[in-house]
Amino acid sequence: MLRQASTILPIRASRAGLHEFTNEVLDFVAGSGIRDGLLTIFCRHTSASLLIQENAAPAARRDLEAYFERIAPEGGAYEHDDEGPDDMPAHLRAALTTTQLSIPVKDGKPVLGTWQGIFLFEHRRNTPEREIALHLIGE
Amino acid sequence: MLRQASTILPIRASRAGLHEFTNEVLDFVAGSGIRDGLLTIFCRHTSASLLIQENAAPAARRDLEAYFERIAPEGGAYEHDDEGPDDMPAHLRAALTTTQLSIPVKDGKPVLGTWQGIFLFEHRRNTPEREIALHLIGE
Amino acid sequence: MLRQASTILPIRASRAGLHEFTNEVLDFVAGSGIRDGLLTIFCRHTSASLLIQENAAPAARRDLEAYFERIAPEGGAYEHDDEGPDDMPAHLRAALTTTQLSIPVKDGKPVLGTWQGIFLFEHRRNTPEREIALHLIGE
């Protein structure tokens, strides 16, 4: 019998950059009792985003952060800077990555590959608390 | 009782760039009678794309447009230009953003954050009419 | 009556770059017997990604490949290079494109536009076999 579960997960990164929250997502799926279905993760913000990336190598994480700092830098000639110099680069980095991820669930777990972790990509230096909507449909 | 609703939404941007259509999406969800579920928005084109972004600041919108014009410029040394100088940059900008968005729906509305709007990112100057497929599953 | 189907599709690109697998996806949908619903395609890797792009013009494909080679080049000053010079650029190109695609299904087929094909974007030169998770919910 197909059914749904959903929640809002509050997350606060300790600093700007990639913040893994795979375990919180696994807990939600396990707690739902749904074993097979489709999980959706949605970031309710335009200055933070989501990324599935390498969960093992801290150097890969640092390179990813440095890369996005370089291609969407602070100090560009932006018109919009209502909230400071990290405001517009945050929107650009969010646009280049993603606001939403959907992952099939099998046997009570998202079918992530061995090296895949789920990350909040926090683009603001003041790291506000973020709301991540989780939705699961299945049986 | 879970069920589905779907439609094809025709959209034409008045000029190349970001064109908000959040209201059209809200109307579809409200009209479906489905209160809780998962909404999917799919762009049936490779030279236009989708983006969830800041819906309040026109300056942020202009900065986003200028940014993608800069990192995937017209006049690059492209091999493919069957449909003119804005052809290949359109495909690149679509590849850098997204073709599809899924958003959980709660109490009859997508759980967008306060500042999030849903945009068609039109990359062609002649702004053809676009088809956006909408799908909703829930109850 | 809503139901689900899922599988793991093994794919191996013959070389780094864009490798179309639209037909394999169409076969999965047709074989499921589900006529209307939501299809999700998920790449279980962090050094390969997914892209919906122009399926007709080989020149557009070559331009896309050249573009991502240029904006996330080998030989950048990366800290992470455990698996060689194409290791970190692979993660960056995956982050700039997407790990997951969802497409509404109507009358037994994903509602792709006329020119849209589904591609594995292989970022490693040794082109390992990749696992693509497919999930379909509908009726």
Question: What do these coordinates show?
Answer:
Three copies of one chain form a homotrimer. By secondary structure, chain A is an alpha+beta fold. Chain A is built from three helices and eight strands; from the N terminus they run ββαββααββββ. Chain A has a five-stranded antiparallel sheet, with helices on one face. In chain A, a hairpin with a 2-residue loop joins strand 5 and strand 6. The radius of gyration of chain A is 16 Å and the shape is elongated. The model of chain A has no long low-confidence stretch (mean pLDDT 96). Chains in contact: A-B, A-C, B-C. The interface between A and B is medium-sized, with 33 and 33 residues.
Rounded Rg of chain A: 16 Å
Helical stretch count of chain A? 3
* β-sheet strand percentage of chain A: 35-45%
Low-confidence stretches of chain A: none
Helix fraction bin of chain A: 25-40%
Write the element-wise H/E pattern of chain A from the N-terminal end onward. EEHEEHHEEEE
Oligomer: homotrimer
Total beta strand runs of chain A: 8
Strand order of the largest sheet of chain A: 1-8-3-5-6
Distance between the termini of chain A: 6 Å
